[in-house]
Amino acid sequence: MTATQEARLGVDIGGTFTDVALQNGPARHTAKVLTTVKAPERGVLEAVRLVLEQAALAPSAVSTVIHGTTLATNAIIERKGARTALLTTDGFRDTVEIRQESRFDQYDLHIELPPPLVPRRLRMGVRERIDAGGRVLVPLADEDVESAIATLHAAEVESVAIGFLHSFTNPAHEQRAGEMLRAALPEVAVTLSSEVSPEMREYERLSTACANAYVQPLMVRYLGHLARDLKAAGVSAPLFLMSSGGGITTIETAMRFPVRMVESGPAGGAIFAGRIAAECGLDQVLSFDMGGTTAKICLIDDGRPQTGRTLEVARVYRFKKGSGLPLRIPVIEMVEIGAGGGSIARVDAMGRIAVGPDSAGAAPGPACYGQGGAEPTVTDADFVLGRIDGKRFSGGRLLLDMDAATVAVDALGAKLGLPTAHAALGVSEIVDENMANAARVHAIESGKTIATRTLVAFGGAAPLHAARIADKLGIDRVIVPTSAGVGSAVGFLKAPFSYEIARTSHQQLTDFDAEAANRVTRAMRAEAEAVVRLGAGVADLFEQRSAFMRYLGQGHEIHVPLDAREYRADDAALLVAAFEERYASLYGRVIPGAPVELLSWVLTVSTEAAPLRAAPRTPDDVAPEPDGMREIADPSSGAFERVPVFMRADLRPGSYIQGPALIVEDETSTIVSVGFDARIDGFGYIEMRRRRAAV
What we know:
Elements lengths: L6 E7 L3 E8 L2 E8 L5 H16 L6 E8 L1 H7 L6 E6 L5 H4 L24 E4 L2 E2 L5 E3 L3 H13 L4 E5 L8 H13 L4 E4 H4 L5 H31 L6 E4 L5 E3 H6 L7 H16 L4 E7 L4 E7 L2 E2 L1 E2 L2 E3 L11 E3 L3 E2 L2 E3 L5 E5 L5 E7 L18 H7 L17 H15 L3 H26 L8 E5 L3 H12 L3 E4 L6 H8 L3 E11 L5 H23 L4 E11 L6 E5 L9 H16 L8 E12 L20 E6 L6 E8 L8 E3 L2 E4 L4 E4 L3 E5 L5 E5 L5
Parallel strand pairs: 1-4, 4-11, 5-6, 5-9, 9-10, 13-23, 23-24, 30-32
Antiparallel strand pairs: 1-2, 2-3, 7-8, 11-12, 13-14, 14-15, 14-20, 16-19, 17-18, 21-22, 24-35, 25-28, 26-27, 26-28, 29-30, 31-34, 32-33, 34-35
């Protein structure tokens, strides 16, 4: 068995399923298996074995493996990371607990704040002080570091974060303390805040450093085991990781900065949707990724997902900004809610159906999986409503139990005096409304509209719910791409190698120092390029540059795209103009004559994305023959209706299907509701367009 094309693997570990996509030239093979929670690498190896069998390839034929995982995120949420300590400037060890002294809900008298990842007894002060300009005011007291080392050794600490005041302007003290720690405790992982987040804002920088230290030993062990096990299975190809910002990076970088991987799986999905948008010539897209545990929604304009520099994880109040731990890392902006196929439904204290955010996960999973789960989930409701083929689920590798699903949903209905079908419809409608509302709020917060967008649906559960969500949002067009059930894994294969660096370098533009700006950006370029070259080799590299700027005296800055070039002293006016153009687009006005200050530079070095496929001509419409009929509940009326069932593998470009109908494939199924008609376009994508107004 030999490969005639370059064979590349994308591997995505989610909370419920592990997805693998194998691309070998134009041929693509996919597999979806339940995540093996206690040893995630076992599920990866099983899925890899399945796709290699489909492709009739030997493991040695694989040239590249690109991986994304929620392991770091889950470790933070579940508090299952390493025993971590924090060394910080004397007098500031409680910064991670004091936060910014802000309350995300000022009317909640019993407000709960997320506890720091590092307990107070393992937070130690060290005498030293550097001012905001980088000048040393108090030299580092080596004896304090030595005393801390003795305490850390006695406490059997596994990882240490070092975060000194203003270290982003001068990292010398952090570097010295790190050298002393590594020499005395070589088995302990060390994170420097000046390396993981060299930016202003003390609490966010320390929170990011602590999170990186907290998950680093876990991720180093996991990635080491995965690389070892893949090699033992015959896959000797290099292993790369997907970052939260949407780029591919090396395993060495991932081990050093695992905090950058916390949203790697969802980022792959956003890249996937962005490529679909670019291929189809869509300038405004709403990406909808619904898996087994969560649903992710992202706004994509001109083929590019929205990006940002901050992320919150482990929120105490899931939908309240400020109730989680902030991370300052490059990230694709999206809203993520507990609304996946495994989300558990219950009756709340007010007698209403509530869904999520907790999930049945992979073990025991929904009741219909037959693995001991008893609580009703979204998947159980969809199965009862006729939307899922129990014999073809996950390619027939997992046979679903209708009796178990019915018992679970019926128990929910009994509490409300509803028949089983109506209880299932209630679960479906609630989860659909939760997702639609999350999309509305995200769009409003971003200052963008939704109704004019095209919905791109992927993930194992999204095509089941896409048409109904489109109804709720007033969207008239839905696209379900090929390999939709494993969209994030496919997205990994579409992403470029890239690395982003942000660095604080404060200047007022009324006295712009061009040489200082050039020194900073040259150093950033060299650092980013060195990381990308580890994976990309001699490929051509491209630079994107931007800055965070604000009017003098404002409390928050805005992100301003800039040209990547050397600056001259007279460029200050151009920088101000770029800032005011961006400011006006956000706030509708500028402040004439107000001085502007630049706080931080952001620089990304990347390879060029893979070329887009040319849009093929779609043949004239032809009505395909259905594979059978099935009764499916209509959410607008609650009644069951017999609808034709089509196998997606049998449909060809030009196939035209009038809704209502069901299109079935191995990893998912697509509901074509009564208000839509579906057509297979030249790429093989399902394109649904509204035929009449939604009920």
